[in-house]
Amino acid sequence: MAANSLAYEVITNKILEKLEQGIVPWRQPWSTEMPKNVVSKREYRGINVFMLGCMGYANPYWLTFKQAKALGGHVRRGEKSTPVVFWKVYEQDTGEVTEDGEPVIHHLPVLRYYNVFNVQQCEDIPEDKIPAQENVREFHPIEQAEKTVQRTCPNVQRLNLGQHRRITSLLLIRSTCPRQKSSQETPNFTAPSFMS
Question: How many whole angstroms separate alpha carbon 171 and alpha carbon 48?
């Protein structure tokens, strides 16, 4: 299988996995910072923004297994990586020359991928190595909505796991909502409780 096909397949499978879990990754009523590499501080681009953003972590910083070790930490056992794609351009000498006597070089772009982990999947990385998050908003709950949630289902608990996803367990009657400070609009924070 060609390298490009493999990279496309890895990304497609990751998106399908999220959809099968009931997560529509491109629909989020809250905002996040652009995903960045914790070491280089460079923002990821293209499909990588989408892939990393839909993984559900509140922290926008990502790193490779080796980068975690180099920073003095490690990836927690059992954590799953997320693929990040990039184009690598190979040069191929055709053996031909131009009229000026220069070799004719073909540039062959090949899609590659590597795996990264969110810093929330890691342990023992010194805090000073992870930049502070920029996109934190003050949360103002809608009092009437909060009262309605408590009155209609007093056993509902919001678990703040720091993740940008909502998980509902009917057996435990528990609703996990995005961090309060990450919601763009207050109604979007309260809405998951009414959909449980």
Answer: 35
Q: Please state whether beta strands 174-176 and 82-97 pair in parallel, antiparallel, or not at all (unpaired).
A: unpaired
- One-letter amino acid of 196: S
**What is d(CA 124, CA 77) in angstroms, rounded to the nearest whole number?**
13
Residues 92 and 10 in one domain: yes
Asked which of 135, 151, 184 is the last residue of a domain, the reply is 135
Alpha carbon distances (Å) from 143 to 148, 149, 155, 180, 187: 9, 10, 18, 14, 11
Indicate if the pLDDT at residue 165 is higher than 60. Answer: no
- The whole domain housing 152 covers 136-196
pLDDT at 185: 53
- pTM strictly above 0.85: no
HSE-CB for 70 with a 13 A CA cutoff: 7
Asked if residue 110 and residue 26 are part of one domain, the reply reads yes
